[in-house]
Specification:
By secondary structure, this protein is mainly α. Helix content is 76%, strand content 0%. It contains twelve helices and no strands.
Amino acid sequence: MNLRQKNNILIYVILVIAMIFWGTSYVFTSIVLKSLEPVSIVFIRLLISAPLLWIIIALFFRKEKIPRSVWKWIAALAFFQPFIYFIGETYGLQRVSPVVTSLIISTIPVFTAIVMRLFFKAKLTMINFIGVFISLAGVILMIVGKNMQIDVDLLGLLLLSVAVFAAVGYGILLNKLSVNVHPVWLIAVQNTFAAVFFLPLYLVLKESPNFDHATSISMLSPQGEMWLCLLILAIFCSTLAFIFYTMAVGKIGVARATVFSNLTPIFTALTSFFLLGELLATTKIIGIFVVIFGLILTQRRVDKS
């Protein structure tokens, strides 16, 4: 095995790890939502993540520099995600289960593939179009209950759709920035800008934590459970996952990297089963596999970005 093959394997490994972190994030966020409202959750995540990243930079990456001309683009990156994305995702998660949330979010590769082709004037192949419709059919299976009635809160669905399109904008910008900017610096600046964006909302909307509920993680008090989940979300989901994903996009491009988000529903379903005791209906299980199959088809014969 040559060095290039080893590097490719490493990229795939860190991408899978990033998707494990993001897949479990929906479950940990749903647990924290019992105690805190959405804006506080995201702001606290960023308030932990940003200083941690700057400490890492001070210790290991002080020699890396970001051109001044790039800062405005990183601000735009932060506006798309975490700012708009997390508003849509976290408020949507209040109304939709973690598994369905992760499945809807996993349609991001579909729309990223379409937008990338529009921006770069490339055409979708027939198999890509088929994949789009198959994946959307899978989403419908996940959100439709018995008697073919919509089984998901429509406002929650709308909020999650906002998150999806914010992630598409994020991916397009990241595809350009990740090549020339060190990933740790990029995510540190991104999360710092995002914390500034969230600060006014946090000051206006923050509420005192509510600990009058049963815990999902045994042997922990509601307060202990809340802080444990927040630390997991901040360190693994808002810091390491973003760094790993940015590294991968810089190496293989956003079109190839986003396909790995197809894995997030699986990790979310497993975490929901073990921590929340959430059982999956047959239609939802079928929907998961249909969406994943469709998303794989959308990534076939993708031109390198």
